[in-house]
Write a structure and sequence with these properties.
This protein is α/β, with parallel strands linked by helices. It is 41% helix and 26% strand. A five-stranded parallel beta sheet has the order 2-1-3-4-5, with helices on both faces. Helix 3 runs parallel beside helix 4. The longest helix is centred in the middle third of the chain and has 34 residues. It is elongated.
Length: 383
């Protein structure tokens, strides 16, 4: 039977009452309300009926069931294996009787002979509360499943730094299961210096009242691997706005950082190679701003690199602009272009420079820079 079909069927109530006359009268009322009714005369029979899988939706149970198990013991046994709404019945209103059901998940407490309206309303309310409870459980389960399986480290601590929860990736960090981590602090798992570091950043987030981000190297106890985390810590609050603790999310940025370092090293080698070439080399971006000049350019023009970087080519070499602009446009249209220009690098000096304009493409095949290179034979020649 599908869930939709199940909802369209009359709901089934298990009435647990040891007195036959009362059971018969209550069953007639429940049937009149539109429910399917099953009965049990003892706690043992109630447990048997539930565990036999008879499709019970709610249990309406007397607390005092005579000899054998009472209603509270019966409820505990059932709730260990089944999630069902239980509404207790009693002929007594004394506090002692109410206290007997404290600590048991329940959805109502009805004094017998309170009237049909009270009985029916209490049962309807119990179903509504149970449905809300199930929706909350499902939502919480989905959220925990999501958090458990994301690749980032996720954890939650209270305001004193005691762990409240964590996901699987975090378990690998401390080499322990969540139930072994919850209730403990960082000082139980890492050395004091690192624990102090973690605690200090917890405090920063709580005092700032907003998310804070820091980077930290950690070692996973599960396999000994070292990882660089970008950690975001955010304060969490209760419904009254009081600080409860910190939510932490740690993202592995080791590969990203190593790529950046490798890229910087490559760029450094690239720049060093260009700097040591005798050719004059200039790189322009799409807006015709100078992005790079090598040492041959600064030497020939007797200017530091700051004289060139960030300036437009037309500002630096206005006398070359017409021929330069034509060659640059042709290079963008046709590809590599070679030409000869007369350059006046310093007072009274004249340089017949043979230049090559080379478009530089990005990963998408678009031109984002142009490199201008003089030939080696002309780079140091003056006339």
């Amino acid at each position: 039977m599908s869930e939709q079909d199940r909802k369209q069927q009359p709901r089934t109530i298990l009435l647990v009452e040891d007195q036959a006359i009362i059971s018969m009268a209550e069953a007639q009322k429940l049937s009149a309300f539109g429910y399917t009714v099953k009965t049990a005369v003892s706690g043992e029979k109630a447990v048997e009926a539930v565990f036999n899988g008879t499709g019970i939706d709610l249990i309406l149970m007397d607390i005092d069931l005579g000899a054998g198990m009472d209603g509270t013991e019966t409820a505990r046994i059932i709730l260990e294996k089944c999630d069902l709404p239980i509404v207790f019945l009693t002929a007594h209103s004394e506090k002692e009787m109410v206290d007997r059901v404290q600590g048991i998940t329940r959805y109502g407490y009805i004094i017998k002979n309170s009237g049909d309206f009270v009985l029916q309303s209490s049962i309807e309310m119990a179903f509504q509360l149970f449905e809300m409870h199930k929706k909350h459980q499902n939502s919480e389960f989905l959220m925990r499943t999501l958090v458990k399986n994301i690749p980032d480290l996720v954890w939650m601590k209270d305001a004193e730094g005691v762990y409240l929860s964590c996901n699987r990736r975090f378990e690998e960090f401390y080499g322990a299961k969540e139930h072994e981590i919850v209730g403990k602090t960082d000082y139980d798992f890492v050395d004091r210096e690192l624990a102090d570091f973690f605690r200090a950043h917890d405090q920063i987030a709580m005092e700032a009242g907003k998310s804070v981000v820091n980077e930290e190297w950690i070692t996973f106890k599960s396999d000994g691997s070292e990882t660089l985390l970008e950690t975001k810590k955010s304060p969490i609050y209760d419904t009254d706005g009081a600080i409860m603790g910190v939510l932490g999310i740690g993202r592995d940025i080791t590969s990203h950082r190593r790529f950046e370092e490798a890229l910087r090293e490559t760029e450094q080698r690239y720049q060093t190679a260009l700097d040591n070439m005798p050719n004059l080399i200039v790189i322009l971006n799409g807006e015709r701003q100078i992005q790079f000049v090598n040492k041959s350019v600064t030497r020939i023009f007797n200017q530091g690199s700051e004289h060139f970087i960030g300036r437009l080519d037309s500002e630096v070499w206005p006398d070359l602009y017409k021929a330069w602009d034509l060659s640059l446009s042709r290079a963008l249209e046709l590809g590599k272009v070679q030409t000869t220009m007369v350059v006046y690098p310093a007072k009274g000096d004249k340089l017949n420079a043979e230049m090559v304009f080379v478009p530089l493409f990005d990963s998408n095949g678009c031109v984002n820079e142009v490199m201008v290179i003089t030939t080696e034979s002309m780079a140091g020649h003056r006339s």
